[in-house]
């Protein structure tokens, strides 16, 4: 069981994992935009 103090501390591994999660989210979002480009373009034109 973790204490409240331990929950606030981050380790270097936590930082790296957070960076990886952000990068993956950005890549998925970019791939989605590329795959659905015509929809995004149509929304911009409205």
What this model shows, in words?
The chain has one domain (11-45). The mean pLDDT is 87. The chain is elongated. Helices cover 83% and strands 0% of the residues. The chain is mainly alpha-helical and 46 residues long. It has helices at residues 4-8, 12-35, 37-45.
Global outline: elongated
What is the makeup of the main sheet?
none
Distance between the termini: 53 Å
Order of helices and strands: HHH
Q: What is the averaged pLDDT score?
A: 87
What's the short story on this structure?
This protein is an all-alpha fold and 46 residues long. The chain has 3 helices and no strands.
Write the topology of this structure.
Elements: H1 4-8, H2 12-35, H3 37-45
Give structural attributes.
about 45 residues, mainly alpha
